[in-house]
Amino acid sequence: MNLNILENYPLSELTTFNIGGPARFYVKTEDSGSVYESVEFARRQGVPFYVLGGGSNLLVSDRGYDGLIIHIANTESDTSTDGETVYKTCGAGVVWDRFVSECVSENLFGVECLSGIPGTVGGSPVQNIGAYGQSVEGLIDEVIAVDTADGNIVRFSNAQCKFSYRKSLFNSEAFGRYIITSVRFALERAGKPSVKYHDLETYFQKDADITLQDVRTAVLKIREHKGMLQLEGYRRFKCAGSFYKNPVISAGHFDEIMGVLDGAAQNRNWYWPQSNPGADSGADSEVKLSAAFLIDNCFGKGFRKGRVGLAPNHTLAIVNYDDATFTEVIDFAKLIEDTVYERYKVTLDREVQILQ
User: pLDDT (tens digit, 9 = 90+) per residue, 257-297?
Assistant: First the structure.
C-alpha cells in the first residue's frame, strides 16, 4: 500500500485554535489498512504518532510535533433499520454536526442536543461527548477500531467502551492502542425532543409543540451566543470548545464553597447533585459543579490577558484573539486554574488535549 507521507506539514490550520507548528510527518488515511500501515511507518521511523480528526479539543505546541500525524478521513456511511430503531454506521472522518443534521432532518431522536459540537464522529466515543442533557454513551451501539498492536479490526459493544463522564476506554486504560475507524449509532423514530437542560428550558420557556429542528436551532443559537460554535455562517472564535471538564466534588466540599458565596450566586443553576447507587449508605455523596460558573466568579466573561482571553459570553472557552502562541495559552490556562484552586480548592481538569 502506498502512503502519501508528507513532511514538515503545518498543523495550525488543521485545528480550531489555529495554533501550532509543523508535524515532522503527516498522512491522510481513508481505510483501516492505511491506518495500520501508517502506524507501522511511525514505528519504522522511531517516532510517536497522533490521530487527528476535526482538530477541535486540541492545542499544538509552536514547535510542532516530532512524530506522525494520522489524519482520519474515512467518510463512508451506512443505514439499516430494525423496527423503530435506525442504525447509522459512520466513518470516523464524518463531520460530527453533519451527522447530527442528517439525523434531525430524518426525524431521528436522541442526538438533537449535540448539535454544533466541533470535531468528527471518530472523536465522539473517545471523549464521550455530551451537551444539554444528552451524550453519545446513550446512542453508540458499536465502535469499530484498528488495534495498533497487530492491525486487527476490533469491535466494541457499548458496555465494552466503559463510558463515564467525558471518559471512555479509549482515553483511559487503552489510551493510544486503538484507532477508531467508524461508529455505529442507534437512534429512534419515535420519541420526544429533549428539552431538560436549563438553557433549553429557558429558551423555550414553556411546553409547546417543539420539533427536533426547533431544538437543533435553539442549541446552535445558544452555542453561537456563548462563542462555542465552529460552523460556517456563524460567529466563530479561535478556540477548542470547552477547555475544562465540569469538576465533581464531595458534598462536604460543596457546602464549604456555598459558605463563601453570596445568596444570589447560591440560587443560580450551577451545580448538580450526583446519584451514587453503588455507594455505602454512610458514604459522602458528590456534586458536579459548573466550571464556567467558578471561572466566571473569579474573572468574569471576556477577561483577557494580552492575546488570549475568555470568550465574551462563556468562560469555558479560552480564545486565541490575535495570533497567540501556545505558551501564551498555557500561561493563561494556568492563571485560571491557580486562581480557581486558590479561591475554591477545586482542581480544574483540562478537556483539551495538549500536543507537544
Answer: 998 887 656 667 899 898 765 545 445 689 999 999 999 99
Is 44 one of the catalytic residues?
no
Catalytic residue chosen out of the listed positions 32, 242, 328, 337: 242
Q: Does domain 77-226 sit in CATH 3.40.190.150? A: no
State the catalytic residue, choosing from 137, 142, 337, 351.
351
Name the grid cell of 195. 428539552
Q: What is the pLDDT of residues 164-203, one digit of tens each?
A: 988 999 999 999 999 999 999 999 998 888 888 878 888 8
Q: Is 166 a catalytic residue?
A: yes
**Burial environment of residue 95 by CB neighbours within 10 A (0 to 12, 13 to 18, 19 or more):** middle
CATH number listed for the domain at residues 248-355? 3.90.78.10
Helices 96-105 and 212-226, axial angle in degrees (round to 10): 150
Determine which one of 166, 236, 307, 350 is catalytic: 166
- Residue 102 designated active-site: no
